[in-house]
Design a protein that fits this description.
Helix content is about 55%, strand content about 10%. The chain is an alpha+beta fold and about 350 residues long.
Length: about 350
């Protein structure tokens, strides 16, 4: 069903983004489970400033990296489920507040496909009604890999946890859960948290229940508040789409140029048929800088190559557009406080890199 983790597209990890509030929820959960927050930030290359609610969004690769780190530092193989238990309106930004102020659970569910990009802009949620049941399914938009397990579980589990919270209902009432990934060895936490049938190696990641559940009234329904928060969600979504258009194009060009040479603003501007000044201005309007995007892509790809391939350090350096291995090593030390070789030994203890 799922492909090996080595099939992950490194470009996808930097093309899609997640809200800083979502990553903050994972950090809070990992800390509750015993992880050291400073260590998580340090090893993931994050700073506390990047998690400010008003800050720029972060690549989805950061979230996936944090899932792996959190599991390693806490020994909690169910970190996705435990994060799902912690979601609240603020976790989902304006979507969360707009959903909780809806009149019914059905109205709240219909908000997800429209505004899910506020949380993560690479996935796709479908809400379908058939055979007397409603089914909410989700696809990550990422190449299938084992490491998507925690992501799948926090998305589907988060829907259930948030739905229980805004509706004030905790019984399963005919619910059914499915995941694309294989069943883990221990199922106790699934039984405790979902309290309903859970199917693994399924065609979709989904939650389904009786159609009548859509009529369930919400505890904090407020028509005036809902209108206000949906308007806020629409504005925020417009900003993300506008920002993603230019920034995503620049990131895509950086990814393509890196194996050939160090990307330059002039080269990317020429390929986008704009002047350097115009490109710089547009990036600034979106809260981005070209040099920071190059560094971001290099940092994320360096982790991917060191953790998931057997490429030599020199080969990784060349793929990232460095003319010399020493330049890559110096940059890597600035990002993570250790050499690429030491990082690989720490994160791939069973590997035998060249």
């Amino acid at each position: 069903m799922d492909k090996p983790a080595t099939q992950t597209s490194p470009q996808a990890l930097t093309s899609y983004s997640v809200a800083a509030s979502y990553i903050a929820c994972l950090l809070d959960t990992a800390e509750q489970q015993g992880a050291d927050r400073d260590q998580l930030l340090r090893e993931s290359g994050l700073t506390a400033e990047q998690l400010d609610p008003g800050s720029a969004r972060l690549p989805v690769g950061v979230l996936l990296k944090l899932f792996v780190l959190a599991e390693r530092l806490t020994g909690d193989s169910m970190i996705g489920i435990h994060m799902a238990e912690n979601v609240r309106p603020g976790t989902f930004n304006a979507l969360g507040y707009a959903a909780m102020s809806c009149s019914t659970l059905g109205d709240a569910l219909c908000m997800i496909p429209r505004y899910e990009a506020l949380v993560y802009d690479g996935g796709r949620t479908k809400v379908e009604c058939r055979d007397g049941r409603v089914c909410v399914s989700w696809a990550s938009g990422l190449p299938e890999q084992h490491d998507l397990r925690a992501f799948n579980e926090v998305i589907v589990g988060g829907w259930l946890s948030f739905g229980r919270w805004i509706a004030g209902r905790h019984g399963h009432d005919g619910l059914a859960i499915s995941f694309r990934h294989q069943a883990p060895p221990q199922l106790d936490e699934y039984i405790r948290f979902f309290d309903c049938p859970v199917r693994f190696a399924a065609p979709t990641n989904s939650l389904s229940g009786p159609l009548q559940a859509l009529q369930m009234p919400l505890l904090q329904r407020d028509e005036e508040m809902h209108a206000l928060m949906e308007n806020h969600a629409q504005i925020a979504l417009g900003r993300i789409r506008e920002g993603r258009d230019v920034t995503a194009q620049v990131i895509a060009h950086i990814q393509r140029l890196l194996p050939v040479r160090a990307p330059a603003l002039s080269s990317v501007a020429a390929e986008l048929h704009v002047s350097e000044r115009t490109l710089r201005r547009r990036l600034q309007q979106e809260g981005a800088q070209f040099s920071e995007l190059v560094s971001q892509v290099r940092r994320q790809l360096s982790q991917h190559y060191l953790e998931r391939t057997t490429l030599s350090i020199l080969e990784v350096a060349l793929l990232l557009g460095y003319a010399e291995q020493s330049s890559f090593t110096a940059a890597f030390r600035q990002w993570f406080g250790q050499s690429p070789r030491d990082y690989r030994k720490q994160h791939r203890p069973a590997s035998t890199p060249r």
